[in-house]
Amino acid sequence: MTDMIEQARAILRNNDRGGYTVPTHRLYPFQWNWDSAFVAMGWVTFDEARGFTEVERLLEGQWDDGFIPHIVFHAPSDDYFPGPSVWGVEHTPPTSGITQPPVLASAVRRMLDHAKDRAAAEACVAAIYPRLLAHHRWWQRARDPAGSGLVSTLHPWETGMDNSPAWDAALARVPTTTTTPVQRRDTAHVDASMRPRAEEYQRFIHLVDLFRDVGWQPEKMLAVSPFRVADIATNSILLRAERDLLALAERFGQAGHTAEISARAEQMRSAIGGLWSTRLGLFQSLDLIDRTPIDVAISAGLLPLYAGAADASCTRAIAATLQRWAGQVRFLVPSTAPDDPRFDALRYWRGPVWAMMNWMIAEGAAGSGEAGLATDLRSSTRDMIANAGFSEYFDPRDGRGIGGRDFSWTAAIYLLLS
Ligand code: GLC
């Protein structure tokens, strides 16, 4: 076993807080939703039981209506703002009241497929499957009640890409006023130039105040939110997750489940197809307040490849887009197009490379007949991590590791790529 694999495993072990893994020590001291899905797949490469425990602990945060929060606050910590009292959610364990991209069903399917202890894995998945189905039903009921085929995202944190330039215009409609005093802790742990700006934080907290005041009721949140987008990442990840859930339903579901899931997936596939931009050479998110496509080229716009929603000509155009970007930065995939004026190589989702995005894009390329692209992306991601360490994100110009250190999902992706 290589030293890097040993180090990656050690990061997961060190970030283990008892059946759940924190994204990194101090900066993110709780369990995060999509982080845990990647991390669970990483665990399964060397400890299958622990991988399934990660999922079960995340599901401790699931609400009765199927919602899965973006954070589960298993144990108190002063290192993070906003903590449980700001969210004001009544649940044990305490949780946030917004969600995150639903990678979970895809992770569980992959974990099952790779498990060597078949009987144990099947028993775990049989118990988890109904919870995943409830979650996907929640997405449709709570976030696409009109049946458009695209789910709404109501907070930049829900997209997992907090300060992406794709949200600049939509977020500008959100007032900067808050009832909760903003007491950031993140900039005590990481250089402020690599984090969202103060004004963005005011708006993030304004939305939290607003949703808390309507009691976290889905229909009210949809109605009052001044921020409402059909995020291309969330929609692509949900479509992929529906396909993976379908495979699980064939083995663990009941009569009617496969037809129900297939219908949702087909509707999403066709709606996502409508978000293609020939000019940008990738897919776009849609601003649902003014119904306009969001005209910014970001790495999320490549994820329909991962969802199996890009036809042959879109797939070719996406490969060309990546080739163009490769001529402008040394390391793929920058989170924002390097030739976009809003590109910022260091600032979080405005330019840096994120390992789990690369992994999903490579999975998509491999599944869409772009095997060469998938191989190149996988090996450059592995090299980048090997050179820079298990950072939160990376400078696309030189591959330097930036943001938080010893990051769980970066370690997990390294394990998946090894
Ligand atoms: C940041 C990221 C988000 C991630 C979280 C924990 O908020 O933008 O995607 O889930 O940190 O790592």
Structural description of this entry:
The chain has 418 residues and is mainly alpha-helical. It has 18 helices and 9 strands. The strands form 4 sheets. Strands 3-6-7 form a 3-stranded antiparallel β-sheet. It has a two-stranded antiparallel sheet with strand order 1-2. Strands 4-5 form a two-stranded antiparallel sheet. Helix 2 runs antiparallel to helix 3, helix 2 packs parallel to helix 18 and helix 12 runs antiparallel to helix 13. The chain starts with a helix and ends with a helix. Bound molecules: alpha-D-glucopyranose. Alpha-D-glucopyranose (GLC) binds next to helix 2.
Task: Please write out the topology.
Layout: H1 3-14, E1 31-32, H2 33-44, H3 48-59, E2 71-72, H4 84-87, H5 104-114, H6 118-143, H7 156-159, H8 168-172, H9 186-189, H10 198-213, H11 218-224, E3 229-230, H12 232-252, H13 257-273, E4 276-277, E5 282-283, E6 286-287, E7 292-293, H14 304-307, H15 312-326, H16 355-367, H17 371-388, E8 393-394, E9 401-402, H18 408-417
Antiparallel strand pairs: 1-2, 3-6, 4-5, 6-7, 8-9
Alpha-D-glucopyranose binds at residues 23, 28, 32, 34-35, 160, 162.
